[in-house]
Write a structure and sequence with these properties.
Blueprint lengths: L2 H10 L3 H12 L6 H31 L20 H8 L2 H4 L3 E5 L6 H14 L4 E5 H14 L2 H10 L2 E5 L8 H14 L4 E6 L14 H12 L2 E5 L5 H10 L1
Parallel strand pairs: 1-4, 1-5, 2-3, 3-4
Helix pairs in contact: 1-3, 3-6, 7-8, 8-9, 9-10
Length: 249
Amino acid sequence: MNTEQILDHMERLRLKGMHSAFTGMLNNKNQINQDDITIVLERLLEAEMNARDQRSQELLFKSAKLKQYVHPTKIDCSEAYGLSKLKWKYLAEGHYLDNKTNLVITGKVGVGKTYIALSLGYQSCATKHRTLFYNMNKLIEEIRSAKLQGIYLKLLNQLTKVTLLIIDDIGLVPLQEDILIALYDIMEARNGITSTIFTSAIPFDNWYNLFQENLNLGESFLDRLRGNAENIVLSGESRRRKVKASKQV
């Protein structure tokens, strides 16, 4: 790294004092040994940039609200499970994010839908994408609280601007019209721009029944979701029961 590159890094990092002092040193040929100071400053700048990258990534993980950190290597894949190694490689590498594809992960209770969604959320944060995880019941609370406080548009902006939004366990409770409207607003704003992951124990083909409060609104929501969505159907027994049984042996 030459002196011009070092000065450029200082400017990008907004290290104005260091930039000015180093410029003065370079102009005073008798003040420093240019080769020595270049090596020192290179190391200092690399350390500063690495520290900032780390802080930025820590902030991404914190703001994502992931309830558990699941590294992609922890996911068991098999054709019988409904998630092949090739498919998981595609997902873990973030190609669905590049393609602005939505994911709908369905399967029986306990089969691992949330676990997979959390792993994709982890990987999204690790690759420097803004991510946000919500359990559906918690999201309902936040939407109604935001409306009461008059900050619904602010919440909607947060939900629509992240690269990856994960909404976990949709369909556990009946969706009333105010929540259907919010879901429509979210999908309308994100459609074709960013990716959304939904998990549900209800088969995707039966989601129309979730919108009994307003079927027209539900149809519009599903039309936008299906337009660029991939349904991953997981099969097999509850993994929670398997873990419990193994501990009892």
